Amino acid sequence: MKLHEYQSKEIFARYGIPIPKGRVASTAMEARQIAEELGVPVVIKSQVLVGGRGKAGGIRLAKSPKEAEEVATQILGMEIKGLPVRKVLVDPAANIEQEIYLGITNDRAARRPVFMASAAGGVDIEEVARTNPEKIIKVHIDPLLGLRDYQTRDLAIGIDLPKEYWKQFSAICHGLYRAYVECDATLAEINPLVITREKSLMALDGKMLLDDNALFRHPDLAQLRDVDEEAPAETEARKYDLSFIKLDGNIGCMVNGAGLAMTTMDIVKLFGGEPANFLDIGGGASAEKVAAALRIILADKNVKAVLFNIFGGITRCDEVAKGILTALEEVKPSVPMVVRLVGTNAEEGRKLLADANMITAETLADAARKAVAAAASA
Ligand code: GDP
Ligand code: MN
Predict the structure, then answer these.
(1) In the predicted model, what is the mean pLDDT of the chain?
(2) Residue 230 pLDDT more than 80?
(3) Which residues of 260-274 are buried (b: 16+ CB within 10 A; e: fewer)?
């Protein structure tokens, strides 16, 4: 689950990280009032769950309350990478001397969290990571020992941070690490962490990703989810407890089991196709759940063929077939559908589907080949 900048920064503040004293507005009038209270200049920052807002024109300075209102009007009317802007954060503008990158995430290969810092922070950090990876300093944290002071010094030295800032920097690192651990985050990032002209460090931007599988431990954080900002397919998938990830290809895949779903995607690619999604309907899926899954797949306009790959273990193939039929009544798809059913009640399942105009397949390879061909000729 992604948090908005303002939500991430509120969490950071609870862990002692200095942030600008701004507030969120959902109308231009509110933005103006906040600017009046804070004093100008202010920055008006679109709150959307994507990066690169600055480059997209979603972060702008305003030198008067009137200008704050005008800028907020424009930004609240924007779409950034397909997401409508519904809120803006109005922060007192900072006087920036240097922009630093500071982040922490899981390094799966190292099996521990990794802290990253760079003196070249700001909007081009991805470019830096690509072209000058040595400019990003990494320090791995032993989860049993936690973050040690010598490690925050290593980071500070690595980014040539002047010594006068070390103490503040170390406190910010410790705060960020605690926020990351205690919130069960998979990413906690400050970009930029700035050195201001007043000689202090401050988090101007904030980003947190929370582990969905740990949200049950954090009912307060779970409430922060902004359903307005989610792709409707994701909201729908969560409602039915489906693991769904949209991808860019044109072959919709409906599979039971995460491993089988990955295998199916690989085989689709092997035969020259591109999956439109990852979807695991889970073990023992009901007809209702299957119908929801098919609706989600078919709502994607890129989908030119659907591949069902169902292995009946706990899941019964006839249940899946019933779900498919239910969904077909509702959605009337115009794309070809290839189905491979094996295992428990596969025979019954195939019988149910016999009249539904589906392309059947015996093996997974056969199914993938047929789906790729069907999508190509669509
Ligand atoms: P992002 O583009 O989505 O990462 O949004 P950020 O919040 O990181 O803002 C992008 C850039 O806008 C920053 O790197 C800064 O250069 C600039 N910026 C953000 N806040 C301020 C501010 O208070 N004052 C000034 N002068 N620039 C700011
Ligand atoms: Mn940023």
Answers:
(1) 94
(2) no
(3) bbeebbebbeeeebe
Please tell me which residue in 6, 15, 101, 177 is annotated as part of the active site.
Answer: 101
Q: Is the CB of 54 under 6 A from ligand 1?
A: yes
For residues 32 and 82, the model is more confident at 32
Q: What is the pLDDT of residue 333?
A: 83
Give residue 218's Cα distance to chain centre: 18
Annotated catalytic residue 165: no
Inform me whether the pLDDT recorded for 41 exceeds 80: yes
CA 93 to ligand 1 centroid distance, Å: 9
Confidence (pLDDT) at 224: 94
Could you tell me the residue ranges of all domains in the chain?
21-92, 96-222, 231-377
Catalytic pick from 6, 189, 240, 319?
Answer: 189
Strands 88-92 and 42-46: antiparallel
Q: Which of 336, 343, 341 is nearest to 364 (CA)?
A: 341
Q: If you measure from the C-alpha of residue 346 to the centroid of ligand 2, how many angstroms do you get, rounded to a whole number?
A: 52
pLDDT of residue 331: 76
pTM, full prediction: 0.80
Domain spanning 96-222, CATH architecture: 2-Layer Sandwich (3.30)
- As a whole number, mean pLDDT of residues 163-176 equals 98
* Statement: 231-377 belongs to CATH 1.20.120.790: no
Q: Is the pLDDT of residue 163 over 80?
A: yes
Question: CATH for 21-92, among 3.30.70.1530, 3.60.15.10, 3.30.1490.20, 3.40.47.10?
Answer: 3.30.1490.20
Return the residue matching tokens 């410790």. Answer: 174
Per the annotation, the verdict on 330 as an active-site residue is no
C-alpha to C-alpha distance for 285 and 13, rounded to whole angstroms = 43
